Structure formats: C-alpha cells, structure tokens
Amino acid sequence: MATSQTLKNVILVGAGGDLGTPVLEHLIASNAFNVSILTRTSSKSTFPASVSVHRVPDDYPLSDLVTAFQKQDAVVMTIGTLQAEQSYRFIDAAIQAGVKRFIPSEFGPNNRNKNTQEMIPVSGLKAQIVEYLKTKEAPEFSWTAICTGSFITWALRNTFLNINIPARTARLWDSGTQKFSCSTFPTIARSIAQTLLQPAVSANKYLYLGDFTVSQRDIVAELEAQAGAKWTLTHADSTQLLKDAKEAVAKGEDPYAQYDLIRASVFVEGFENDFEKVDGDSGMDILGLERATLGDVVKEVLADEGKL
Fold it and tell me: Taking the model in full, what pTM does it have?
C-alpha cells in the first residue's frame, strides 16, 4: 500500500450513533473525503442526501459487506460497544474488497490493560479484535485503533460520571481524586480524519487520545466555579460498587451492566485510564491535534443546560 497517499474513499459504519453522527459531520465538512455510509436495513437513522448510503440486512451477510466495501479506501467503525463482536466479519469483508485501512470501534477505555480485559467482557473482545487485525497486516492492508478515554461531553450530559448537572449533585467514587483521560467528540472526529489524511504515520498503531486528564473532583470544582453554585456531594465505596457490577454482569440478564464496569475502570486505580502515564503512542502528538480544555467543555455543557 502506498501509505503516503491520502485515503480518500471512506465508508462509515454506525453513522447514526452518538459518536458516528459527529464523525460523519466532520468528515463531510472537511471536504477531504468521499464519504459513504453502511447501515442496517431496519435502521431509522436519516443521513444527508449528499452521502451514499448502503443498506444491508441486519445480520450483516459477508457478501453484502464485500459489495458495499468495493472501491473504498477505508472502513471506519463507530458501532456501539455491545456490537463489537460483529467486527470480525467487517474486517474479513474489508480485506476481500481490497480496503486499505480499517479503524475498529476501539473508542473508549484502555482495552490494552490486562485488568480491563479480564473484568469487562467487551474490552477483552475488543483487545482480541486488535490482535486479529495484527494478523492481517500486509503491504495492502493496515489498521489504526484509537483509544479515547471517556467521551467527556457526552458523559456529563448523560451523568455517566455520576455528576448530575441539573440536580447539582455528584456521587464520588472513594475520594473522587482518581485521574482519567477524556476526549471530546470533535477531537475524536479530527483524529479519525487525520488518521486517514496521514496514513503513513498512523498505520498499524494503537493511538491514545486525550484532550485532558481530570478527576471527578476536578470536574465538580470547574462546574462550581463557572455556575457560581455548590454541588451536593455523596461518596460511594468502589469495592462494593465493583462487586455489584460484576455480579450483574455474571447474571447475564442485562447486557448494559457492562457499562457499570466501564465506569468502574475509569474511577478505580489499576486500569491505566490516565493516558499521561501510559507507555504508548500519543495520537494527539502523532496526528498534530489541538486540545480542548475542561473549562471549554464545562462552559458548553452548562450553556446547554441553561445553567449559565
């Protein structure tokens, strides 16, 4: 593969989701790519008329994927976390169709960490997917995995970090001082675009992103400073919360119980989600990305909530 050449024709899988939507918007706005979308036949998502949409049966038949991937330079996966098991089929289809670069749906916590792999089933699966991609490396095929940490703006709007902005409350795990790295959707979208625009420097790499590294207490302090109000704080014992989450996942009744374990991996030591301390490739540096600040994010979220 001539890795010095821009990957121009890009097909996005999962374009209607929380992450896929801003990624699609950025790729289109950049005017650097010919963007297509692959979606399920049953999907109710709507897309810009300027974008070619390939609809395939919900079980993603391999032959349909190969057809959709014809003449594509890159496949970008932004499917939901719990759909990650479909990735093997997409990888095989991409290779058969002659796709040059595959970006898996790695976005999220540090799935390279052994504790994360052992505790969170989907993280173990995602780690195996990256290993599978490594076995497929060839002059004509490469991959880039992008580890983003917490989707900070989404996390604050959806109380994923146990910080409730409308109610002005926060539940701190233990002391609330565990540091973790965060990325905004615009930064993630730019990282994908720059991966495609700079294929030589991003080929076969696992990249760590992070606009900034913070703790729950850091976020609460910034919220209080900008809102001019105090947050009511409660505390939770991480040992008990971890125990409850593991039991819920073990029962297998609620697939979304894994999200409680993902949250735990952010707030508890030993899961290496402070990327400033991780021995790995910095996507921010390699791709030349500018960083947002915690202040920027808090200002945006408070404005959306009508709290400024």
Answer: 0.95
Q: What angle do CA 9, 15, 17 make, to 5 degrees?
A: 160
State the DSSP H helix or E strand holding residue 76, giving kind and residue range, or none if neither: strand 74-77
Tens digits of residue pLDDT in 278-306: 999 999 999 999 999 999 999 999 998 87
Neighbours of 16 (CB within 10 A): 17
Q: What is the pLDDT of residues 122-168, one digit of tens each?
A: 999 999 999 999 999 999 999 999 999 999 999 999 999 999 999 99
CB 19 within 8 A of CB 107: yes
Residue in this structure with the two tokens 């057809």, named with its chain if needed: 67
Look at residue 146 and give its three-state secondary structure: strand
Per-residue pLDDT at 1 = 42
Residue whose C-alpha is closest to residue 54's, from 38, 66, 40, 72 = 38
Q: Are 287 and 208 in contact (CB under 8 A)?
A: no
239 contacts: CB under 8 Å, gap ≥ 6: none
Do you know the residue count of the chain? 308
Q: Are 164 and 305 in contact (CB under 8 A)?
A: no
Cα 235 from chain centre: 28
DSSP sequence for 77-99: E---GGGGGGHHHHHHHHHHHT-
